[in-house]
């Protein structure tokens, strides 16, 4: 990594909601228009508790109210984001992702408008491997299935 890269830690919180062998996912839109499936959730506002952020983000991205059942784990991953017309310096992003198990308690499924996602859907777990998705989806499913004692998936 070159020393002129902007370095940033981004804490985020997500919820794994599984019902009837289906998982709730949201489709993320990249700055370049790329669309990839991800877990509902996202970045914490300054001073926001991760628990509250996960609930807020799921509501924003899917329309559902959720109850968080348990902490599944924490994932840490570095991303190099190349320079572009908006940010002329490359960015070295350290994603710190807090993953909870969630249960839908109300609301109605809907798509987010004017946000970082454009679609929310229940996807059969057996079909997830066929989707274009971010690495967090596989990590979150592994945390949900394996429930490792230390809340960490070793890659």
From TrEMBL:
Transmembrane segments: none annotated. CDD domains: NUDIX_Hydrolase (cd02883). PROSITE patterns: NUDIX, NUDIX_BOX. InterPro entries: Nudix_hydrolase, NUDIX_hydrolase-like_dom_sf, NUDIX_hydrolase_CS, NUDIX_hydrolase_dom. Its cofactor is Mg(2+). The keyword Hydrolase applies. It comes from the Bacteria. One of its GO terms (molecular function) is hydrolase activity. Keywords: Hydrolase. Residues 7-145 form the Nudix hydrolase domain. The keyword Hydrolase applies. Belongs to the Nudix hydrolase family. This is ADP-ribose pyrophosphatase YjhB (NUDIX family). It comes from Kitasatospora kifunensis (Streptomyces kifunensis).
């Amino acid at each position: 990594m070159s020393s002129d890269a902007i370095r940033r830690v981004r804490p985020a919180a997500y919820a794994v909601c599984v019902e009837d062998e289906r998982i709730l996912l949201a489709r993320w839109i990249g700055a370049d228009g790329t669309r990839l499936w991800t877990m509902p959730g996202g970045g914490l506002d300054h001073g926001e508790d991760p628990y509250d952020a996960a609930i807020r983000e799921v509501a924003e991205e899917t329309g559902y109210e959720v109850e968080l059942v348990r902490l599944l784990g924490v994932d840490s991953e570095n991303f190099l984001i190349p320079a572009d017309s908006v940010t002329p310096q490359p960015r070295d992003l350290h994603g710190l992702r807090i993953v909870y198990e969630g249960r839908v308690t109300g609301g109605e499924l809907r798509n987010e408008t004017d946000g970082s996602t454009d679609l929310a859907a229940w996807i059969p777990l057996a079909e997830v491997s066929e989707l274009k998705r971010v690495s967090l989806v596989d990590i979150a499913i592994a945390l949900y299935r394996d429930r490792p004692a230390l809340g960490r998936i070793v890659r």
